[in-house]
Design brief:
The chain is an alpha+beta fold and about 100 residues long. The protein has three helices and seven strands. It comes from Streptomyces incanus. InterPro entries: 3Fe4S_ferredoxin, ET_Ferredoxin.
C-alpha cells in the first residue's frame, strides 16, 4: 500500500509545517526532502516555498509535492524533535506527524 493510500490522500492537497520550538536541527528532513526542507543559519529547519525561498514565519506552510510525499512522510517519522506536521489543506487535519490521529 502506498503512503497516499495509507492516509487516504490520493487526490488531496497536503501541506507541511515545522514547529521550530521543537526542532533539534539535525537535518534529517533536509536529507530526505531537500525540495521542501532546509536548515537556516540559525541551525533550525524551515519549509521552502515554491520559489525555494525559506519560509521563516511561525507556522509557515508549504504544499507537499505528491512525487516526494513519501520522503516528506519519512522526514516526519524520523525527526527526533517530532516537529514536522503534514496536514490536509482542505480541512487542516494532520495526517502525519506528532498530532496525527
Amino acid at each position: 500500500m502506498s503512503v497516499q493510500q495509507e492516509a487516504g490522500v490520493e487526490d488531496e492537497a497536503l501541506e507541511v509545517w515545522i514547529d521550530q520550538d521543537l526542532c533539534t536541527g539535525d537535518g534529517i528532513c533536509a536529507q530526505y526532502a531537500p525540495e521542501v526542507f532546509e536548515l537556516d543559519i540559525d541551525g533550525l529547519a524551515y519549509v521552502k516555498g515554491p520559489d525555494d525561498e525559506l519560509l521563516q514565519a511561525t507556522g509557515a506552510t508549504t504544499r507537499v509535492p505528491l512525487p516526494i510525499l513519501t520522503d516528506v512522510v519519512d522526514s516526519a517519522k524520523e525527526c527526533p524533535g517530532e516537529c514536522i506536521h503534514v496536514r490536509r489543506v482542505a480541512d487542516g487535519v494532520e495526517v502525519y506527524g506528532p498530532d496525527a490521529g
